Amino acid sequence: MRALYWNGVNDLRVGTVPDPTIVNPHDAILKVSLSTTCGSDLHFIDGYLPTMKPGDVIGHEFMGEVVETGPEVRKVKVGDRVVVPSFIVCGECWYCQHQLFSLCDNTHPKPELQVPMFGYATAGIYGYTHAFGGYAGSHAEYVRVPFADNDCFHAPEGVPDDQVLFLSDAAPTGYMGADFCNIQPGDTIAVWGCGGVGLMAQRSAYLLGAERVIAIDRLPERLRLAREKCGSETINYMEVDSVVETLKEMTGGRGPDACIDAVGMEAHGTGIQHAYDSVKQALHLQTDRGTALREAIMAVRKGGILSILGVYMLMDKFPIGAIMNKGLTVRTAQQHGQKYLPRLLEHAAKGELDPSFLATHRFSLEDGPRGYAMFKNKEDGCVRSVFAP
Ligand SMILES: NC(=O)c1ccc[n+]([C@@H]2O[C@H](COP(=O)([O-])OP(=O)(O)OC[C@H]3O[C@@H](n4cnc5c(N)ncnc54)[C@H](O)[C@@H]3O)[C@@H](O)[C@H]2O)c1
Ligand SMILES: [Zn+2]
Ligand SMILES: [Zn+2]
């Protein structure tokens, strides 16, 4: 089959790779209908997340049609149209039983690559480094879905593919980030980043009852989507002296009740702190540029909630003192998609959540490298590049 694979830092290629096969009795094979880019991919494309190998098929946000099932698969059948969360889960372990799905104990075949960094291994994920399991990704004609009964969710009739697609990763991540904020009537939620994840976090914050959502980014077309598609107020951080001061002014001096970081380790920034982070990142002395996260920590009101969706690894000068002395609650995770999918499918079926506006650019799989270049460089207002294999 044809697939888009990582060949080296900033080098993606399309080629012919072996078709996936049923390896375990709980597996299904999906014919991929749509697969899309995620900000998380940029971290290994740019070389900040290690343990990729040349030839690794990438992609983890996808939907498609079941074409083959293993003998133990019960709930999904050949011909079903399904969406699959990006983390692979067994459904049986202590973590799955507690709905902490991205922490599943049974789906990481190479824990020795993660335990030294995190203490314990997380769940595996499609197309996202060997440190996260080394599974083949979804930017391909076919993909193997282990534990198909837990991980395939039926797409509701009448909800088109390009809406269902984003219920795989961007929407559940954003929804989880808003859920972490324990939103109360009257709350103001600030969201750093207006990529797919940040926009879904903004929309979800309103769905969960926020009174005001304030979005922060520098890209005018993404800030426009935040206003028009999510109803957010916006701050272009290139146009203000200080995001923290601006947020204070907008909230009567108290600050947002919760702050969501939907930017992560490749934050853009200005000033001395950003220069320091960039040099250390280039020399591999730290992996992360922390501009957005530091701002969120400073801006959130005393006793507020910090919800971290952006992916991080190692950061220097992390303001733990502000977190401790201000009494902040920090909540973070890789997305627990299997927890949120039933709710999100219901919102989509009722027309309350339509993430299809994220699909700004469409490509054939053969054009994958160009799709990623546009997504990475945010060319032509690209929010997500969608591939139809
Ligand atoms: N927790 C999870 O399960 C999960 C799932 C998906 C993605 N992610 C992570 O979420 C983050 C965002 O993903 P995405 O797909 O939306 O990425 P993206 O690259 O499309 O969007 C990131 C946005 O952040 C903006 N930004 C950069 N620096 C900023 C700053 N200093 N202040 C405010 N905005 C800034 C960029 O302009 C861009 O619009 C990434 O780190 C990704 O790895 C996490
Ligand atoms: Zn993702
Ligand atoms: Zn499990």
pLDDT under 50 segments (min length 5)? none
Output the CATH homologous superfamily of the largest domain: Medium-chain alcohol dehydrogenases, catalytic domain
Q: Kindly provide the radius of gyration, computed on alpha-carbon positions and rounded to a whole number of angstroms.
A: 20 Å
- The helical percent reads 25-40%
Identify the notable features of this structure and list them briefly.
about 400 residues; alpha/beta; Quinone Oxidoreductase, Chain A, domain 1; Rossmann fold; seven-stranded mixed sheet; six-stranded parallel sheet; binds nicotinamide-adenine-dinucleotide; binds zinc ion
Q: TL;DR of this structure?
A:
The chain is an alpha/beta fold and 389 residues long.
Would you spell out the secondary-structure blueprint of this structure?
Elements: E1 2-8, E2 11-16, E3 28-36, H1 39-45, E4 56-57, E5 61-69, E6 81-84, E7 87-88, H2 94-97, H3 115-118, E8 124-125, E9 142-145, H4 148-151, E10 153-154, H5 161-164, H6 170-179, E11 188-192, H7 196-207, E12 212-217, H8 220-230, E13 233-236, H9 243-250, E14 258-261, H10 271-282, H11 291-299, E15 305-308, H12 320-325, E16 329-332, H13 337-349, E17 361-364, H14 368-376, E18 385-388
Parallel strand pairs: 11-12, 11-14, 12-13, 14-15, 15-16, 17-18
Antiparallel strand pairs: 1-2, 1-4, 3-5, 3-9, 3-18, 5-6, 6-10, 7-8
Helix pairs in contact: 6-7, 6-13, 7-8, 9-11
EC number: 1.2.98.1
Keywords: Metal-binding, Oxidoreductase, Zinc
Protein name: Formaldehyde dismutase
